[in-house]
Amino acid sequence: MAFFFPDKDGLRRVGEHLGMELSQDEAGSYHDFLSAITPAIRMIEQLPDLPPNVKYPRTPGYQPDPADNPYNAWYYKTSIKGAAQGKLAGKRIAVKDNVFVAGVPLTNGASILDGFVPDTDATIVTRMLDAGAEIAGKSVCEYMCFSTSSSTASTGPIENPRAPGHTTGGSSNGSAALIAAHEVDMAIGADQAGSIRMPASFCGLVGHKPTYGLVPYTGCLGIEYSLDHVGPMTDNVEDCALLLEVIAGDDGIDGRQKGVRTQVYTEALGQGVKGMRIGLVKEGFERPESETGVDEAVRAAAKRLQDQGAIVEEISIPWHNIGSALWLPICIEGSYHNLYHSHGMGFYGVNAAYSLSYMRAFAGWKAHLNELAPTIKGVLLTGEIFARHQGRLYAKARNQVQRLRAEYDAWLEKYDVLMMPTTPMTATRLLPDDASPKDVLIASWGPFSNTSPFDITGHPSISVCCGMSDDKPVGAMFTGKHFDDATLFRVADVAHQQMK
């Protein structure tokens, strides 16, 4: 729609909408000055869009038949091949369906985006192709990435290959299922409350949430600018470290990236844990929602690390319990504004690359509110209630994150890593088709008490399978200093080797 400036009567009506009472003379005076912006805005409209970032040829691929998609984890299958050589040569990678791959349809798990096709590649997609990877397709994610129940995607539920009949977690659930089923070598996930680490825990994988800003989010659909992370998911620690080496680093576009420091993450492997100091965080265990078998498996893993020469001591960080509470207004009110007022792109005050084609595709979503998943409806309802408190809840929680970060940092001066269960429970049963909104919300928001605090503080955090409970995988989570992701791979490598 081309820009137009309203006439004097139209300007008065705009004022009435804002609660202003403008006389005819006042409206005329404002109109005489403000309407002069029209030529500049029309000139901006006529400027060409920046050329899309597409380096490698591809076809759109196809949406697989059920027989070719046994866990319902693929949204689209492709075969986009990158450079002939590189660190990722021979690796087939699934990309979560909130990440732009030019020419390949994207829905972000949501029916309201059916038909949208990005015209550019995300920065990380270009980097993976430059490193010789093959993009094998787009993996299904939860509806707009806001669930962990594996039940909200518009294409249907996703089953856990390593715990049949159970959830894969979320929201990077398709990525987790495809790795667990050995259909791809690596996958990309995104994490705002634990959406890389929770499915890694439920499916017995390695999932790494990098330090905030380490990996550029350019070309990825976010939830809330201050806690958007994108990172690697794999079946082993070496591949996870290797993929992070390729995708990490400043791209000069994403405003989340400040003071980025990269490392050669694969060099941390094989160093052992002798002399490392590991703080076992008491508050991560024996929570109201905890399963005894999970706590026991993680403590057993800690004991094995101790037997390998690590110094393991239990510590208490009471503010860890406050972290998941602080996450609530930040993520809910932030994502409400992102959806309802910022065109789905964290629009105002954000340094980023904006997809105008996505904004056009998203523009009519308010006409389809009734088809949204229960998690999105819940966010909109609660976000509107929070917003009626003049933004104070979001602001106070955001301010308190400084205290939370300082609490973790103080302990990370004494210990190399903090350790606790990734999820307090193992994979839960898939929900029935007639599950109530309450059932969906409980299943979606129940597992992230340990993971979500590190999304708002930005600390790097990795989940690695450390055992089994009731024949289902258990994840141990290690968290470290900002931009010291390599130390997490060092300890995760030993914890994972003990499982072989």
Word description of this protein:
Helix content is 34%, strand content 13%. With 500 residues, the protein is α/β, with parallel strands linked by helices. It folds into 2 domains: 8-46, no CATH class; 66-497, Alpha-Beta Complex (Amidase signature (AS) enzymes). Strands 1-3-2-4-6-5-10-11-9-7-8 form an 11-stranded mixed sheet, sandwiched between helices. Helix 7 runs antiparallel to helix 15 (485-497) and helix 9 crosses helix 11 (374-387). 53% of the residues are buried.
Runs in which pLDDT lies below 50 for 5 or more consecutive residues are none
Discrete helix count:
15
Strand content: 5-15%
CATH homologous superfamily placement of the largest domain: Amidase signature (AS) domain
The coarse silhouette is globular
Largest sheet composition: 11 strands, mixed
Give me the Rg, rounded: 23 Å
Beginning-to-end CA distance, first to last residue: 59 Å
Return the structural class: alpha/beta
Strand order of the largest sheet: 1-3-2-4-6-5-10-11-9-7-8
State the CATH topology of the largest domain.
Amidase signature (AS) enzymes
Topology, number of strands:
11
CATH class of the largest domain: Alpha Beta
